[in-house]
Amino acid sequence: MLGYVTLGSNQFDKAAEFYDALFDVCGASRLMELDDFILWGTSMEAAGIALSKPYNGEAATVGNGVMAGIRAESADAVNALYQKAIELGGSDEGEPGPRGDGFYAGYFRDLDGNKLNAFYLG
Length: 122
Description:
The chain has helices at 12-24, 75-87; strands at 4-8, 29-34, 37-41, 48-52, 68-71, 91-100, 103-109, 115-121. The chain is α/β, with parallel strands linked by helices. The strands form two sheets. Strands 1-4-3-2 form a four-stranded mixed beta sheet, with helices on one face. The longest helix is centred in the N-terminal third of the chain and has 13 residues, at 12-24.
């Protein structure tokens, strides 16, 4: 159902470096790149996360209640993604841990304040 999620950025080049390093942890890479848009994923057939300068030229803002989830293959992979995000300058929104019903997740914000989580169902 979901093809990709786009996150806005006011510091596009720095944010692109953040996501290059973060997604390297889970084996994702750039699949599409334009001057103001980059899509990361593992294949064009799987869901991905994109970074974009807002089309209307206005400043990017964080959506209240908006979050992108990154599926991980294990709890250890969740921990690694969360730690990498923090190491790259992201901020904590909830350390990794069990959240109930086999859902394990860690929550963080990127350099622009966009909220993401790494999660594992198992």
